[in-house]
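Long-time lurker, first post. I've been practising inverse folding by hand and with some scripts of my own, and I keep getting stuck on stretches where the structure tokens seem ambiguous. Below is the full token string for one chain I'm working on. Before anyone asks, I'm not after the true native sequence, just a reasonable design that respects the backbone. If someone could post their per-position residues I'd love to compare against what I wrote down in my notebook.
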């Protein structure tokens, strides 16, 4: 019936605060909403809404009519539900999870009146800052262009260093899973970069050692990286750059075009891949696409991360930082929000870590 529709239209105008808002909800044109409101007012012989250029305002008669209309519409809905065998009265468990401060300030004050109105509802509420802290950790983690040290991480999250250290490595493990089965195609650059801890020299000259001697050098590892131009980066930690030959055979498509420097161990790849080589003793680029600058750009980020942010990285965990730098380089043009959502999804889908679960407990024993 027309009266029912006009009453609902009037109630929606008040709820929306504007004719245009009500038109969007009811899927009508604004002129049609205005015409039907005018028809209702004409039928009642009273102005219900005072229209101005800035807003709509209920008249005194309109406010009383609005209260009556809401009661009428509610009675109609209840009657229809009873006839149809339905119930509009909510019942059963209602589970609420929220941060502690938000729950105490905004949810808890509303619970008594809610339960009084809906006594059949059983509320199960869990207030915790754990998940909020995890989201904050992910946002902080992806925001650092050179990564984030565990010390800074622990201070920003107000947690122990141990917690921040393991959490950061679990996140690195999750983001590395994106390229676990990646096969590079098209134009692919390959190179290696060595990382080692240089022993600190003693104060007095007579106590110093010759760091050119192998026995006086720290553990040395090479990060072998393959970078597809316009694609992803794959990084691996090995003892020798020559180990990259086997990696290239396994992780590059047969029709890929390889770009490498003049190191002799890359010669073995020319038998399988179309190859372009550049002699870095002569130039780093010929200006026509013959270079390894893209993979060198990745190494620059990794060195800034290791030397400038973390100051020292054990070769035992170097692969984690190499994967982290590769992920940051791959997604450097993506927004922080998109990176955070991608890492959140990866972390939620990643299985329990076999490396980092119980890390400190195992080391304590």
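-- Answer (accepted) --
I ran through it position by position. Result:
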């Amino acid at each position: 019936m027309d009266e029912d529709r006009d009453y609902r239209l009037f109630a929606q105008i008040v709820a929306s605060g504007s004719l245009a808002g009500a038109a969007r909800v009811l899927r009508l044109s604004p002129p049609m909403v205005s015409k039907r409101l005018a028809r209702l007012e004409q039928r009642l012989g009273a102005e219900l809404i005072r229209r101005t250029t800035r807003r709509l305002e209920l008249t005194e008669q309109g406010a009383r009519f609005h209260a009556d209309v809401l009661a009428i519409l509610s009675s109609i809905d209840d009657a229809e539900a009873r006839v149809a065998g339905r119930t509009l009265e909510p019942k059963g468990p209602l589970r609420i999870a929220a941060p502690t401060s938000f729950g105490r300030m905004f949810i808890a004050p509303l619970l008594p009146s809610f339960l009084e109105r809906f006594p059949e509802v059983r509320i199960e509420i869990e207030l915790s800052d754990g998940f909020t802290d995890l989201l904050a950790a992910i946002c902080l983690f992806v925001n650092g262009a050179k990564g984030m040290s565990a010390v800074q991480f622990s201070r920003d999250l107000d947690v122990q260093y141990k917690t921040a250290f393991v959490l950061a490595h679990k996140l690195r493990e999750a983001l590395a899973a994106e390229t676990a089965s990646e096969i590079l195609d098209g134009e692919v650059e390959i190179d290696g970069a060595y990382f080692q801890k240089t022993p600190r020299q003693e104060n007095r000259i007579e106590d110093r050692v010759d760091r050119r001697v192998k026995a006086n050098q720290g553990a040395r590892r090479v990060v072998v990286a393959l970078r597809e131009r316009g694609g992803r980066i794959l990084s691996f930690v090995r003892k020798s750059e020559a180990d990259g030959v086997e990696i290239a055979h396994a992780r590059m498509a047969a029709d890929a075009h390889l770009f490498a420097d003049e190191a002799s161990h890359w010669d073995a790849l020319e038998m399988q891949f179309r190859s372009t080589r550049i002699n870095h003793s002569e130039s780093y680029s010929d200006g026509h696409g013959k270079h390894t600058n893209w993979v060198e750009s990745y190494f620059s980020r990794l060195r800034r991360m290791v030397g400038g942010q973390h100051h020292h990285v054990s070769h035992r965990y170097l692969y984690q930082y190499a994967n982290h730098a590769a992920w940051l380089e791959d997604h450097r043009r993506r927004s922080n929000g998109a990176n955070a959502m991608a890492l959140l999804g990866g972390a939620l889908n990643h299985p329990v870590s076999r490396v980092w679960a119980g890390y400190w407990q195992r080391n304590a024993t």
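A couple of notes from the structure itself: Residues 61 and 318 are 75 Å apart (CA to CA). Residues 60-83 form the longest helix (24 residues). Happy to go over any region you disagree with.
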